[in-house]
Amino acid sequence: MSTIATDAPVALGQAAPTPRQRIKVGRILAHLALLLFVALWTFPTVGLLVSSVRDRDQLAISGWWTSLAPSVRLSAARIGPASGQTQEDGKYVVKGNLFGADARGLSIEGFGATNADVRAHPAGSTIDDFNGGSLTVQSTGDYTLSSPTQLAYSGQPRVYFGVGSPPRFTFENYRDVLAAEGIGQSFINSLTVAIPATVIPIMIAAFAAYALAWMRFPGRGFVVALVVGLLVVPLQMSLIPLLFLYNQIAHFFGGEAKGYVGVWLAHTAFGLPLAIYLLRNYMAGLPREIMESARVDGASHFKTFTSMVLPLSFPALASFAIFQFLWIWNDLLVALVFLGAQNDRVVLTGRLVNLLGTRGDHWELLTAGAFVSIVVPLTVFFALQRYFVRGLLAGSVK
Amino acid sequence: MFQQILAAVIAVAIALAACFAYFWGTNWVLDRLLMARPGMSDAALTRRDTLRSQVRPWLFIGPALLFLVVYLVYPVFETLRLSLYDKFGTRFVGLDNYVWALTDDTFWRSALNNVGWLLIVPAFSTAFGLIIATLADRLWWGNIAKSLIFAPMAISFVGASIIWKFIYTYKGPGLEQIGVLNAIVTALGFPPQAWITVPYLNSFLLMIILIWIQTGFAMVILSAALRGIPEETLEAARIDGASEFRQFFDIMIPQIWGTIVVVWTTITITVLKVFDIVYAMTNGEFQTQVLANLMYRWMFISGDYGRGSTIAVIIMLAVLPVMVWNIRRVRAEVGTA
Fold this sequence. Notes:
The complex is a heterodimer of chains A (398) and B (337).
Chain A: H1 2-12, H2 19-52, H3 56-61, E1 71-78, E2 86-88, E3 91-97, E4 107-112, E5 121-122, E6 126-130, E7 133-137, E8 142-147, E9 158-165, H4 172-180, H5 183-214, H6 220-230, H7 236-253, H8 260-284, H9 288-296, H10 301-312, H11 314-330, H12 333-338, H13 348-358, H14 363-383, H15 385-396
Helix pairs in contact in A: 2-14, 4-14, 5-8, 5-11, 6-8, 8-11, 9-10, 11-14, 11-15, 13-14
Chain B: H1 2-33, H2 42-82, H3 96-103, H4 105-136, H5 142-150, H6 157-168, H7 180-187, H8 201-227, H9 231-239, H10 244-255, H11 257-272, H12 276-281, H13 291-301, H14 305-334
Helix pairs in contact in B: 1-2, 2-14, 3-14, 4-5, 4-8, 4-11, 5-8, 6-8, 8-11, 9-10, 13-14
């Protein structure tokens, strides 16, 4: 009985939408919702990119979303004196150009007689009662003040107007920020930190991962647990002791505590837990028969590893390399602590933070600088997304 | 300038050569030392074989272990020790630093802010990630959408901070607003605000940056989990006439619950360590301080190693439950052998 009762409304199908209609509305809503998410997630970056190529003066006074429209600036100019009037077709006229001699692609958006109604009258229209005449201003800046009777105003009355300048895009911001603000040097510094610190841990981790995946020995479980535990240890725990250690070493050998070697080693160590974890999971998943056939052929562990396991693990190695590179490129804390913030060696992220402090209002510099710093990771990301996603999946779900 | 890059490349070559030399060399030495010699008894041979197979793993693991111990294990204990010492790390002061932390207003402000971050960022990132993953898997352009939403993952926290600071930027009333947020606010007829300086709201604005970055992460992981749901269970629900919402909440969510927890905890760990965003946006001003940034201040601005270490230990304590849980999970999987 109860099943019949619950089926009844569907069977009757009164005003309820048919499943097909419901699915259609649902589909459209799904499209719209996803579109909204995509917009929210991409517009911030698009805004940065657009702003970085805008003319600095336009960027300072108008939002990036208006960058294709002419930007409007308020201005004022005086018209010629009454003594300069001439007679044309029986009318008294004063003519001239509000921009003076140099109009350079500027255009008048609107004009008015007082400061308050600067844009009350669009270009090409006429103010009927302007100092005893009627004033027409064209968008080119040409104005005509005419009257059937002789004009008799004193001095040179002001006209207020909005000037639109055409949208201007430029790479000047990039030139400024790369050279004068030192982003170029920092770009090189970031590369100098990232290349060795990406490559060095791979080999060290690969050997350890192989041992943890394919060798049986007492203490193996403990080492795996240690690696997993260290995955989440906050970097903050390491900074002070390592700084002490570096200072002592520098003191002992008479070198400098802060330098590239120190950063390379620190990044290597901080990347190792993830590297070992990722690679071990991957290698443990390789078919057992391959290992066994290699052993039967008399290959040593060393030989099996270098000639078979390492090439087969390429996807996992690539995943980790991408992770490590992005992490180092984007890192601020480790570089700040172990390399310092001096101008000649500060990395991109550090330089950008400095810029935020000293050039906080210069959005043309900040946006261009930020784009220089994100273009590398974004390129890596879009080119190698497949490996990145694979690594992410292997690293967190297991 | 490019000499520097060259030096880096040479460093890579040297490091790789050294690694290879170590691994190859130690293996060779091991095989040589414990080689089977003519005239050895069977028992002696077996003993040598076992010894070899017990030493070799440690040769493979050695360098990695050395790095881990020097850079991560030893510092954990050293930081613990330093947290019981004074400013310079020379005089034992017992729990004084902890007492200081628990009675310090800035510390509590930071800790409370951290709690706010911990509650809000993982919740929103995971929820948005789940919604987007569900939507994208049904639409033909879903993969493009996912790729675009995932992209902020690749951007540095500092880069993202600049992107969002530009959105929050403020110009005086009457001027045209160049920040999107103030442009929207003034278009709706409200006065513009210097958002970054408005306490409590500003912390939320900083959290948005991390949500913007982490949603892509949650989305990718959850999307993979959703695809792993057996088609039959959904089919069965559909035949029973379950609505899309019922399918989502009653069938899909329970099946990926484990993954949701993993995503949530992973983002939680990221949140605990967040430093760059606060450092770049406000440097802890306007009541936005968080523990990681506070630690940096005490350590590098004030040069107080005791208090800096204490704050680090407190961050570590917050991470500890996740760490223990992770280890137990992996131990169950790998076994203890």
